[in-house]
Amino acid sequence: MKPNQSIRVSHMLRGIEDPVLIISTDKQVVLNANGKAIEVLANGKASQLRGLPLQLAYGGGRQDAFPKPLPSAFMLPVSQNGEISLIDFRVSPLKIEGKKYWLAIGRKVEQEEELQKKLQHLEQEKSLQQMKVQFMSMTSHEFRTPLTAISSAMDLLETRLQLDGQLSSFHRLQLRKMADEIFQLNGMLDEVLTLSKIAGNNWEADFKPVSPEQIIETLRYQYFSQRKDDRSLLISIEGEPRPILADKDQLAKVFTNLISNAFKYSTQKNPSVKLQYKKKKLVITFRDHGIGIPESDLPYLFTSFFRGSNVDGIEGTGLGLSIVKTFVESNHGTISVSSGVNEGTTFTLVFQEFADAI
After folding, report:
1. What CATH number is associated with residue 44?
2. What is the DSSP string of 3-26?
């Protein structure tokens, strides 16, 4: 290797943290080595490595110690701090100005004790994760029981007051406030329970032909009609509606969250949903004209427990969009978002599996 070539190669080797050797293809001489290789293979003495054939330095002089051509992988023993370990080298061809060499990059082979420690650590993490999942599931179920009892008692109280002619506007207002809070708590518990199933890998998508526009229309009627602010959800459809292959319950959770957010983070204009049935895909956009999302928050928007920096005072858990992304992708869809502060937000879902195309 010419001097100017050697200089360029040396600069290249300095940028690699693992042990690296450049070996001639004919006599298998170590022509160059980076600092890490000299440190671990020759105790810091370059003269004991560079310029020597591999079989002389590590094969006891035996010609058969390293077959020709050099195999795609080989190991070299090293001694550090009185302990013997192995460096596993992976070999690939290298061409410099038309001449061929062997490039060998090595990594330390982990000892059985180190592997055992890592395995124990992974088992502990797995056990801790299972405990978290069980705790979330148990908490969700335990809270749901008293909430159901409170909701039933409120219904009985409202009915009794009405029968006795004592249901005033004050009573109606307070009962409505309590009902709203219970609805919000139940929604939060649903999100926690869903997240626990996802974290525990305890869920499967049940793919069947479903009509997204019917799901959205049902959700509008059940949850987003007769609002106190008189706003409503605008739905528009382009193209001929076709069923897609998806899990109906998962899609309902996705649509509920995105529609709810559209109302929650806006106060004046009506949120809208647009379904575009194209030849090979369905595009659904959920749009609001609310507070928007800061650009710096967008990369973290689908992370569990993340909430935007401009949503102080607005209730939420930071779980919804994480669940939305998981369910969209589990149904072979994609989700993207575009937004700006005080410019509103648009979520775009794309599904490409029409039921009639399967």
Report:
1. 3.30.450.20
2. HHHHHHHHHHHHT--S-EEEEETT
Query: Lowest-pLDDT range, 1-5, 142-146, 225-229, 327-331?
Result: 1-5
pTM: 0.57
**Could you tell me if 329 and 351 lie in one domain?**
yes
CB 85 within 8 A of CB 58: no
The three-class DSSP label of residue 176 is helix
CB atoms within 10 A of CB 308: 22
Q: Residue 9 is part of which domain span?
A: 3-109
Out of 15-29, 79-93, 182-196, pick the least confident. 182-196
Overall domain count for the chain: 3
Query: The CATH number of the domain where 125 resides is what?
Result: 1.10.287.130
Strands (DSSP E) along 115-165, which ranges? Answer: none
Contact of 236 with 274, CB cutoff 8 Å: yes
Distance CA(323)–CA(326), nearest Å, equals: 5
- Distance, in Å, from the CA atom of 260 to the CA atom of 263, rounded to the nearest integer, reads 5
